[in-house]
Amino acid sequence: MSNHPLMSNFPLYPTSLQQALGDPLVFRPSTLKAVRAFAATKPWRGTLDDRQSKFQKLHADLCAIYSVSPTVAIEGDGTGDSGGSCFQPGANVITLRGRLSVITFLHEWGHVLKGSSEFEACRWSLRLFQKCFPRSFARLRWEGHVGRRGDRTESE
Ligand SMILES: [Zn+2]
């Protein structure tokens, strides 16, 4: 989730969902609209191509809203752990690995907008996920430093 592998003995990452959420955030109405539209497309449904298109659409919307231009590279076959995903500020590239995860995608966008702080990236992404995917958010479990979906039925 970070572009460095340090995640063991240092409090670089929040240690609970409540800590990760941090203080409330106010999002731009355009951001909420874009992410809710993305949610309505049911981003976990469809073929891998379909799903990539949904993520790319949200990515383009966020680029327009925030006037930034990171690229997004989606690697792999859309299965497996998404924890190897990252944002590399120098190259200005979000790389998504493993299963296409909404939370991971938003987390990397948190880094785009908030910099390298894991706390700020978690806060931005989880607060946004909470607002736009409320039922999935309610099922989140905290594992290590990331939220995981609480079950494998992917419905919202
Ligand atoms: Zn991160």
Question: What features would you describe in this structure?
Answer:
The longest helix has 19 residues, at about 50-65. With about 160 residues, the protein is mainly alpha-helical. Helix content is about 45%, strand content about 10%. The protein has six helices and five strands. The relative contact order is 0.19. It has helices spanning about 15-20, 30-40, 50-65, 100-115, 120-130, 135-140; strands spanning about 70-75, 85-90, 95, 140-145, 145-150. The strands form two sheets. Strands 1-3-2 form a three-stranded mixed sheet, with helices on one face. It has a two-stranded antiparallel ribbon with strand order 4-5. The chain has one domain (about 15-150). The protein is globular and about 35 Å long. The structure holds zinc ion (ZN). Zinc ion (ZN) binds near residues 2 and 111. Zinc ion (ZN) binds next to helix 4 and helix 5.
Summarize this, please?
This protein is mainly alpha-helical and 156 residues long. Helix 2 (29-40) runs antiparallel to helix 3 and helix 4 (102-114) crosses helix 5 (118-132).
